[in-house]
Specification:
The complex is a heterodimer of chains A (about 110) and B (about 120). With about 110 residues, chain A is mainly β. Chain B is mainly β and about 120 residues long. Chains A and B meet through strand 4, strand 5 and strand 9 of A and strand 6, strand 10 and strand 11 of B.
């Protein structure tokens, strides 16, 4: 059973471009979470999704950020018109139940 | 809002010795989970140990154990017989336990160095 897969591992974008981060949860997991980690900081919750539904987006910036988890395919975190402050590591986690989250290795986004 | 505080930005330990990492949290809830995660340079977040708040017994996983003091809202991690592979960032985290999934709240982390 493969773990949580995130790609790309590293993503470089220029200011104003779009960034698309992908996350494939573990097989059988229907809950997906996105977290952001700034340098020297802990992970900060962004959004929680189940298949085709956003359950909690209280940690998501109101503008430029969106997330989806379609019926088929990976979960996508999309950042439009990126700015330097968006540079961070973005982690995806999946779970089957509330008891245990499995994390991917993250995508390091660098905005030039 | 729940908060998690790790007051030690950096710690070091001699190989084979024991080290304790501190964590305190703030919550008005009575039923929750506490976690310690390890993040090596590979960036992978690895679950080290988990504690349910309703259990009085401290969780233990091999060389890793916790000291859970619910009244004091303290959740420290003890690593015994430290190994070079234990060098990493360690994050304490909290999650409310309810019928649905709730997100983890993380502390800022403690960087552990292991000296050979």
């Amino acid at each position: 059973n493969a773990g949580v897969m995130q790609n790309p591992r590293h993503l470089v974008r220029r200011r104003g471009q779009e960034a698309r981060l992908r996350c494939s949860p573990m097989k059988g997991h229907s809950h997906v979470y996105w977290y952001r980690q700034l340098p020297e900081e802990g992970l900060k919750f962004m959004v929680y999704l189940q298949k085709e539904n956003i359950i909690d987006e209280s940690g998501m910036p109101k503008e430029r950020f969106s997330a989806e988890f379609p019926k088929e395919g990976p979960s996508i975190l999309r950042i439009q018109q990126v700015v330097r402050g968006d540079s961070a590591a973005y982690f995806c986690a999946s779970s089957f139940s509330e008891e245990k989250l499995f994390f991917g290795s993250g995508t390091q986004l660098s905005v030039l | 809002a729940q908060t998690v505080t790790q007051s030690q930005p950096e710690m070091s330990v001699q190989e084979a010795e024991t080290v304790t990492l501190s964590c305190t949290y703030d919550t008005s809830e009575s039923d929750y989970y506490l976690f310690w995660y390890k993040q090596p340079p590979s960036r992978q977040m690895i679950l080290v140990i988990r504690q349910e708040a309703y259990k009085q017994q401290n969780a233990t996983e091999n060389r890793f154990s916790v000291n859970f003091q619910k009244a004091a809202k303290s959740f420290s991690l003890k690593i015994s017989d430290s190994q070079l592979g234990d060098a990493a960032m360690y994050f304490c985290a909290y999650s409310l336990r309810n019928s649905g999934n709730t997100p983890l709240v993380f502390g800022k982390g403690t960087r552990l160095s292991v000296i050979a």
